[in-house]
Structures are given as C-alpha cells and as structure tokens.
Specification:
Elements: H1 2-43, H2 45-61, H3 67-80, H4 84-115, H5 118-121, H6 124-146, H7 150-170, H8 177-202, H9 208-212, H10 216-250, H11 253-269, H12 274-286, H13 290-322, H14 328-337, H15 340-356, H16 360-385, H17 387-410
Length: about 425
C-alpha cells in the first residue's frame, strides 16, 4: 500500500512537471514561429540569411562557456534540489562560465577577424554581448530543469520571448541584423535577471566571500566533467551550423535565408518532445534498462512521425499562406527536414542517457563522426543539388550519430 502511494505521488509530480515543460516549450514554439514569419517578411530573406549566419558563428565560438558546464552542474542540482550543495555548484558553475566567457571572447574576436565574412565581423561586439547573456540564461534555465521546477522555466521563457516580441514589433519597419541582435540580447537579459532573482530567493543565503571567490575543489570537479561535454557540444553545434556556413559561401545569403526558414521551422517542432524527455529522464537516473529506453524511444517516435506527416501534407500550403510567392523552395525543404524533430528529439534523449552513464567520451566520438560526414556530404551535395543537397547531408549525418548512440546504449545497458 505504501509503495503504491509513493508511486502515485511520483507519477503526479512527473505529470505536473511535464505539463509545465509543455507550457514552456509551447511559449518557445509559438514565439519562435512568429519571429520566423515576421523577420523574412518585413526585413527580407537576405537579412534573415545574414542573421542566421551571424548566429551560426555565435553558436560555434561560444560553446566552451555553454552547455558543458551546465550539464556538469546538473548532477548535483538533480539530487540536491535547492540545497546548499546544489546552490554552491550552481554558483561555481556560473563563475566558471563568466571566466570562460572572457577567455572565449578574446578567441572569438581573433577568430572572427581572421575567418569570418564581413557580415559577421561587423557584429563582433554585439555577438560578444549575446554570448555572455546567453551563457547566464542557459545556466539558470538548466538549473530549474535539473531540480524539476519547470514552472520557473515557463516563467523565464515567457519573459524572454515577451521581451523579444515587444521590441520586434517596435522596430518592425526598420529591422536589421544589428537590431535583431539587440532584441535577442534584451530578451535573454531580462529572463536571466528574473531567473537569478528567483534562485537567490529559493536557496539559503551565502556570504559575499563564497559568492565572489572560486572554490578550487568544486571547480576542478566541474571542469573535469565538462571537458568531454565541451568538445562534444562544440562538435554538435558544428554539425548543426556547417550547412549554414557552407551555403552562405557557396550559394549566398539569399539561399541561406530560404534554407534557414525551413530549418528553423522544423527544428522548432522538436520542442514538442521535450516534455516527454524531461518526464522520463529522472527514471534513467535510477536505472538504465533497454525496456525503459525502448519505451521512451517509442513515445518520441510516435509523436514526431505524426509531425513529419503533417509537414509532408501541409508544408506547401503553410508556406504559400504565410510567406506568399517566391518561397516555394521552402516548402520542399520542409518536407525533407521534416525528419529533424524526430532525429533531434532522439539525439537529446540518448545524449542525456549517455551523460547520466558518465560516458561523455562516446558522445564526443559519435559527434565527431557525424560532423565529418556532414562536411563531406555538404561539399559534394551543395554543388550538385543546392540547398536540397544541404538538407540531405544534414539528415544523413544525424541518422548516423543517432544510430551509433542507440547501438551503444542497447549493448551497454545495466
């Protein structure tokens, strides 16, 4: 009787958190789609392509202060909730992110001046600021996910996207790449400040010396955990952004604009599976079995195959109604990239399980293989098939990475 009551409470808690996760992702999807519709229509496809190219370099060069440290801190947060240990690791991770943001900022400027096109070099200082605020925002959101307080995540998404949409419509008739960057900086900054306010209200007070100084022991633990994840995250972002950079170089910014619209629309659909992943992940913390893995994969597959079917049936109609004439190639790209939600959701689940099993080196290896395949296929297929070739290369690379991860987990279950 007691065990049944505990299980009922656990299921109720899981359903509640899953519901709030769904609210957060719904806010992200709806607001994201509005941005993807408004910017190309009012600023033009070329501006949207230039903005996508700038964000591609931002993602690649800002990764070492990003997700790896968040994931390294998440283990304590999941176990200790708002306790002192969780608080201390959160603050230590945040301080490390700020240190690495400064270091990556220097590398950022040098790399952009040497390697990036003029479109990107013109936005260097705004990009540095964007990397900085996105690191803080990501750290706060990941903490609330890890402690399974997804109501706060929904609040942060509301303020982030509310701020972005407000300024987007303020400047709707005068949009440019620099204004779009400022709008994104404002959204992440507002959400970060609110998230930090909530965090400090929930945890026990901490003295100023502990807040400012670095704890060498905790920092070493975080950095040790984060190293493989940092390299793996870098490779994953290269995988996602290689097509954007190569399209801009081989076909131009307008072609990249069309491709980015299709990619961003299909990528947003992957958020639908996020509540499922967040809901099942606590069970993988306790034990990883093939039965649990297959059950989770089946849930994600059913949802995303329905989404893929909807893309196949209605993408042309959607593009015609929303964007009008001249955007027909976007409908075709959506049909191919419609598999992205399935692949990205599966990859997120498997990457999370591999991280919990402390096998981040495997993530690194699988990501590296996928990146090499993506670069080689893009180099060949873009020349032959244009943006269609880039979409085929991306889907193939993700399929390879997903297959390797799934094979490894099935053969190394507990």
């Amino acid at each position: 009787m007691k065990s049944n009551l505990v299980w009922t409470i656990a299921k109720t808690k899981q359903n509640k958190e899953t519901a709030w996760a769904l609210v957060a992702k719904a806010i992200s999807v709806i607001a994201g789609v509005i941005i993807m519709i408004v910017v190309p229509r009012f600023a033009g496809v070329r501006v949207y392509g230039a903005f996508s190219l700038v964000l591609a370099y931002q993602a690649i060069l800002g990764v070492f202060a990003g997700n790896s440290i968040q994931a390294a801190v998440a283990r304590e947060a999941a176990a200790d909730k708002f306790g002192d240990l969780s608080r201390d690791f959160f603050l230590e991770g945040l301080k490390l992110k700020l240190v690495f943001s400064i270091i990556s900022g220097v590398v950022f400027v040098i790399a952009l001046e040497l390697l990036a096109p003029a479109t990107v070099r013109e936005q260097i200082w705004l990009l540095l600021l964007l990397v900085f605020v996105m690191n803080i925002w990501g750290h706060v959101v990941t903490f609330f996910e890890s402690v399974h307080r997804l109501f706060y995540e929904a609040v942060l998404y509301f303020f982030e996207y509310g701020t972005k949409l407000f300024f987007l419509f303020v400047f709707i008739n005068n949009l440019s790449v620099s204004k779009l960057l400022c709008i994104f900086i404002a959204g992440y900054s507002v959400a970060s400040l609110i998230g930090l306010f909530i965090f400090f209200r929930k945890v026990n007070p901490i003295n100023i010396q502990a807040l400012v100084g670095l704890n060498i022991g905790r920092s070493q633990i975080i950095i040790k955990r984060a190293f493989h994840l940092a390299v793996a995250s870098f490779l994953l972002i290269v995988l996602a952004k290689t097509d954007a950079i190569m399209i801009s170089q081989m076909l131009g910014l307008e072609a990249l604009g069309f491709y980015s619209i299709a990619y961003d629309i299909t990528q947003q659909a992957a958020i639908v599976s996020a509540p499922i992943i967040l809901g099942v992940m606590p069970f993988f913390v306790k034990q990883h079995t093939n039965k649990l893995l297959f059950k989770s994969v089946k849930k994600i597959a059913v949802v995303n195959l329905i989404i893929f079917g909807l893309f196949l049936l209605f993408s042309d109609l959607f593009v015609r109604l929303v964007y009008g004439e001249g955007f027909e190639i976007v409908g075709l790209l959506i049909k191919i990239l419609g598999l992205l939600p399935l692949l990205l959701s599966m990859q997120s689940l498997l990457r999370g399980v591999l991280t919990l099993k402390d096998t981040t080196q495997q993530i690194l290896i699988f990501n590296f293989i996928a990146v090499v395949i993506n670069i080689l296929l893009n180099a060949v297929l873009i020349q032959t098939f244009g943006v269609i070739g880039a979409s085929l290369a991306t889907i193939t690379a993700y399929l390879v990475m997903l297959s390797l991860s799934f094979w490894y987990l099935v053969n190394h279950s507990s």
